[in-house]
């Protein structure tokens, strides 16, 4: 009997199809060759220095909106999209966020709720990386409770006029188009706001300690006038943006497993070569116990992601399944990253090694797309039948 592979201890990837393996390998090779050599510098500089070049690369790779069908999108299954997210976040959470916001949020909103004209105009260039999109839902005072948003859209003749502020928007300042959600007299509605629309601006958020290899912005809408053709016609109520968030959260389920795996792999390399007291520190009992704990978390995360992916492909994934995966896998990844940082000693706080970069990124991953507390309450409602959000 063969000894288990430390990098896939439970042989989770054994159950992948040939096509899924090919996608995994393609995204992994691209991420390690084209992105990994730059990500530490991007993190240190607090930005992606060439976001349009990165977008074009992702477009050529085919990962933007890859789970969507038509309009230049690949139409892969959910597991394949998850694998892509895993391999991207194994390099950096900010890069997976780039793809997730573009494909699972902005493109999904247009694909699912837009008119045919809107789909034809925006989805092909977004799929190809020729246009960058962002998703404006979160506000300075409206995070876990998006229904309390203050951004308003009022009718003025045949037009709409939008006013408000959105916060923590990935790619906002480089986006060619923003999908913005606003409260109207008829309820929450979504609007397509092209770059350069009068009254619309985006300001980069600086001094972040997490997701630094990502561009995060504030969106300001000051009496932005849009034609009714800019409204997403099928988006009615808060259910529309929340359904897009569920798609993005699904990517996080896989992405967190990738970050955890990267921390374990880096730690196995480091503890195997770091010699103290005459031998590699991987040979000490306390080190091996920590490595074992990391191994369990990584492989349980992989199993959770794959099972939820299979449920999704079978049309049986409830939004609470995704809450389960996001809550469990991010928490596990945070444990793995913390242990990895400690086992790297002083070297663990440098960008020469990836572990503290992952550890800091996961602080944002734990917060966005629903905090742990929100997902816990989602699971609590399923268990008890009693909503406890208010």
TrEMBL record:
Record pathway: Amino-acid metabolism; lysine degradation; Amino-acid metabolism; tryptophan metabolism
One GO term (biological process): fatty-acyl-CoA biosynthetic process
Single GO MF annotation: glutaryl-CoA dehydrogenase activity
Pfam families in UniProt: Acyl-CoA_dh_1 (PF00441), Acyl-CoA_dh_M (PF02770), Acyl-CoA_dh_N (PF02771)
EC number: 1.3.8.6
Catalytic reaction equation(s): glutaryl-CoA + oxidized [electron-transfer flavoprotein] + 2 H(+) = (2E)-butenoyl-CoA + reduced [electron-transfer flavoprotein] + CO2
Keyword Flavoprotein: yes
Gene3D superfamilies: Acyl-CoA dehydrogenase/oxidase, N-terminal domain, Butyryl-CoA Dehydrogenase, subunit A, domain 2, Butyryl-CoA Dehydrogenase, subunit A, domain 3
Acyl-CoA dehydrogenase/oxidase C-terminal domain location: 236-382
Superkingdom of the source species: Bacteria
Keyword field: FAD, Flavoprotein, Oxidoreductase, Transit peptide
Cofactor(s) the record lists: FAD
Domain Acyl-CoA dehydrogenase/oxidase N-terminal: 17-130
Keyword Ion transport carried by entry: no
Residues covered by the Acyl-CoA oxidase/dehydrogenase middle domain: 134-224
Family: Belongs to the acyl-CoA dehydrogenase family.
Protein name: glutaryl-CoA dehydrogenase (ETF)
Naturally occurring in which organism (per UniProt): Spongiactinospora rosea
Classification lineage: Bacteria, Bacillati, Actinomycetota, Actinomycetes, Streptosporangiales
């Amino acid at each position: 009997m063969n000894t288990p592979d430390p990098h896939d201890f439970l042989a989770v990837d054994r159950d992948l199809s040939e096509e899924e393996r090919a996608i995994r390998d393609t995204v992994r090779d691209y991420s390690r060759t084209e992105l990994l050599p730059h990500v530490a510098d991007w993190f240190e500089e607090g930005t992606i220095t060439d976001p349009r070049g990165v977008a074009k690369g992702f477009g050529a790779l085919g990962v933007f909106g890859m789970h969507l069908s038509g309009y230049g999108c690949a139409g892969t299954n959910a597991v394949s999209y998850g694998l892509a997210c895993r391999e991207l976040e194994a390099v950096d959470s900010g890069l997976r966020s780039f793809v997730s916001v573009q494909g699972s949020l902005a493109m999904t909103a247009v694909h699912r709720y837009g008119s045919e004209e809107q789909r034809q105009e925006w989805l092909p260039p977004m799929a190809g990386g020729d246009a960058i999109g962002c998703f404006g839902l979160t506000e300075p005072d409206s995070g876990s409770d998006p229904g309390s948003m203050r951004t308003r859209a009022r009718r003025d003749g045949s037009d709409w006029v939008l006013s408000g502020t959105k916060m923590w928007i990935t790619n906002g300042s480089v986006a060619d188009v923003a999908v913005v959600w606003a409260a109207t007299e008829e309820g929450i509605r979504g609007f397509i706001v092209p770059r350069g629309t009068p009254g619309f601006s985006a300001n980069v958020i600086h001094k972040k300690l997490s997701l630094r290899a990502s561009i995060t912005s504030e969106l300001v809408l000051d009496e932005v006038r849009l034609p009714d053709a800019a409204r997403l016609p099928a988006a009615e109520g808060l259910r529309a943006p929340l359904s897009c968030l569920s798609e993005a959260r699904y990517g996080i389920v896989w992405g967190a497993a990738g970050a955890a795996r990267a921390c374990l792999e880096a730690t196995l390399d480091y503890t195997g070569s770091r010699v103290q007291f005459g031998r590699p520190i991987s040979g000490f009992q306390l080190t091996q116990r920590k490595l074992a704990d990391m191994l369990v978390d990584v492989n349980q995360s992989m199993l959770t992601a794959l099972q939820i992916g299979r449920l999704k492909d079978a049309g049986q994934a409830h939004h609470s399944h995704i809450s389960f995966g996001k809550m469990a896998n991010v928490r596990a990844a945070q444990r793995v990253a913390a242990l990895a940082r400690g086992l790297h000693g002083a070297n663990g706080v440098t960008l020469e090694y990836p572990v503290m970069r992952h550890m800091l990124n996961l602080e944002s991953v734990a917060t966005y797309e629903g905090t742990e507390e929100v997902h816990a309450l989602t699971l609590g409602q399923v268990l008890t039948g009693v909503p406890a959000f208010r």
